[in-house]
């Protein structure tokens, strides 16, 4: 009986995770605004893994900083607009750290998930817990999957902008 209840609980968790990923993919496919998809992903991340805090930042190579965009805590989801300048060598490593950018308090468990495409930084996701409860392997898989969906949303937005600007250039050339 206990094994069956455990298996049912695990199946429900897997179903929630899969439904979340499918929902994010569908929103991307239907052209939902990238910011809405990223906000939804941050909310799903918090709901599925229950960290104390998660922060998402976009990399700005021209300024050499991460622009912290979203933060989710037990109090809810919020947009933020802060710059975070990583320490020397921090971009090359995605090791766990004791602090999360934009927050004063150190955390016992911090998972850093780089958002990279073709080995280029696009952004980063920091997820933390203040209690000594490490992220389980299944939670890491969920966090990595959501981070990957966030990366897809960001890349989709960039490609859409490139296509639109290419169309403008082509129309200008045609008119001239």
What is the tally of beta strands? Answer: 5
Mean model confidence by pLDDT: 84
Note the total helix count: 3
Ranges where pLDDT stays below 50 over 5 or more residues in a row are none
Biggest sheet details: 5 strands, antiparallel
Amino- and carboxy-terminal Cα gap:
76 Å
Order of helices and strands: HHEEEEEH
Strand order of the largest sheet: 3-2-1-5-4
Radius of gyration: 18 Å
How much helix is in the residues? 40-55%
Quickly describe the structure:
The chain is of the alpha+beta class and 176 residues long.
Note down, in words, how this protein is organized.
47% of the residues lie in helices and 26% in strands. The chain is of the alpha+beta class and 176 residues long. The chain has helices at 2-29, 34-49, 137-175, and strands at residues 53-60, 65-73, 76-84, 109-117, 120-129. The protein contains 3 helices and 5 strands, in the order ααβββββα. A 5-stranded antiparallel β-sheet has the order 3-2-1-5-4, covered by helices on one side. β4 and β5 form a beta hairpin.
């Amino acid at each position: 009986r206990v094994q069956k209840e455990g298996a049912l609980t695990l199946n429900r968790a897997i179903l929630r995770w899969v439904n979340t990923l499918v929902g994010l993919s569908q929103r991307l496919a239907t052209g939902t605004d990238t910011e809405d998809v990223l906000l939804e992903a941050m909310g799903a991340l918090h709901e599925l893994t229950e960290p104390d805090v998660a922060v998402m930042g976009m990399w700005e190579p021209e300024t050499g900083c991460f622009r912290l965009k979203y933060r989710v805590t037990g109090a809810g989801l919020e947009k933020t607009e802060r710059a975070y300048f990583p320490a020397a060598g921090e971009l090359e490593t995605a090791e766990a750290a004791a602090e999360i950018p934009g927050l004063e308090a150190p955390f016992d468990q911090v998972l850093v998930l780089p958002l990279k495409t073709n080995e280029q930084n696009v952004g980063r996701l920091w997820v933390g817990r203040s209690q000594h409860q490490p992220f389980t392997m299944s939670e890491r898989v969920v966090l990595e999957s959501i981070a990957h969906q966030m990366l897809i949303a960001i890349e989709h937005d960039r490609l859409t902008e490139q296509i639109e600007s290419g169309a403008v250039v082509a129309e200008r050339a045609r008119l001239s």
